[in-house]
Specification:
The protein is built from four helices and twelve strands. By secondary structure, it is of the alpha+beta class. It has a twelve-stranded mixed β-sheet. The longest helix has 15 residues. The N terminus is likely disordered.
Length: 208
C-alpha cells in the first residue's frame, strides 16, 4: 500500500467540439476555483503493467484550498494522508510509521495535493484535452518536473464535476479512482487538516 499511498496522494485539493481544448482545461480550472472546500468518498483500484488487478481500496477525503487536504483509506488497511498547506504527513497504521514531506514536494508527486492546490496549475503541469470517452470529458495532466512518482493523470469530468482520475506511475502501474457523494463547499473543521503522530510510531522526515 505504500506505493499506492504515494501515488494516489501523496492531487487530491486543483463543451462544443470546436472549443473542446479550451473547455476541457476550463473544467479543471473551474473545478479548482469554485470548490474552495470539497468532501466525498472514493474507490480505488490498482492494475499492474499487464492490466491485472492487484489492489482494491476505499475511503473518504476532504479538501480546503489552497493546499489543505485529508485523504483517508478505510479499507483494506487504515492509512491517512494530511496536508496543512506547508507539510504533508503520510500515516500507515499497519506499519506504525509516519512520513513527513514538504507541500511543494507532494504537489509534484501527488494527485491529492494537486486537487487541493490553488487554480494555478499550469506552471506545474502540461494540460491537454483528450476528448470524450464513456460519457465523460477527459483531460490529461503530465508533470513538467522529472521527480514525481507518476507519468500522467487523466481526469474525467461530467459537466463541471470530477468523476474519475486515472494515474499511470513510473512503474507502469495504473491507479483508477472513482468519486461519489461529492459535496462542494461544505463547512469543514480545521482539525481535519492538522496531524500529530501517535505515540510510539516511527517518524521519517523526507523534507529535502
Amino acid at each position: 500500500m505504500t506505493k499506492i499511498l504515494s501515488t494516489a496522494l501523496t492531487i487530491l485539493a486543483c463543451a462544443l467540439p470546436l472549443l473542446a481544448k479550451a473547455d476541457a482545461i476550463q473544467r479543471l480550472h473551474q473545478f479548482t476555483h469554485d470548490a474552495k472546500t470539497l468532501s466525498g468518498a472514493f474507490s480505488q483500484t490498482v492494475y499492474d503493467r499487464k492490466n491485472r488487478k492487484i489492489q482494491d481500496a476505499s475511503g473518504e477525503f476532504y479538501f480546503s484550498r489552497p493546499g489543505k487536504f485529508r485523504w483517508v483509506y478505510n479499507k483494506p488497511y487504515e492509512q491517512i494522508i494530511v496536508g496543512n498547506g506547508k507539510k504533508v504527513w503520510l500515516y500507515d497504521a499497519d506499519l506504525a510509521q509516519v512520513t513527513e514531506k514538504k507541500m511543494d514536494q507532494a504537489i509534484g508527486e501527488s494527485p491529492a495535493a494537486l486537487l487541493a492546490s490553488s487554480d494555478e496549475i499550469d506552471p506545474r503541469f502540461n494540460l491537454k484535452d483528450i476528448g470524450q470517452n464513456k460519457g465523460l470529458e477527459w483531460l490529461e495532466a503530465t508533470p513538467k518536473g522529472k521527480d514525481g512518482t507518476f507519468e500522467r493523470v487523466h481526469l474525467g469530468f461530467l459537466g463541471d464535476a470530477l468523476q474519475t482520475m486515472e494515474l499511470k506511475d513510473n512503474f507502469g502501474q495504473t491507479t483508477l479512482l472513482r468519486f461519489s457523494g461529492l459535496k462542494n463547499n461544505p463547512k469543514l473543521k480545521a482539525e481535519l487538516f492538522s496531524f500529530t503522530p501517535p505515540k510510539g510510531v516511527d517518524v521519517l522526515n523526507d523534507q529535502q
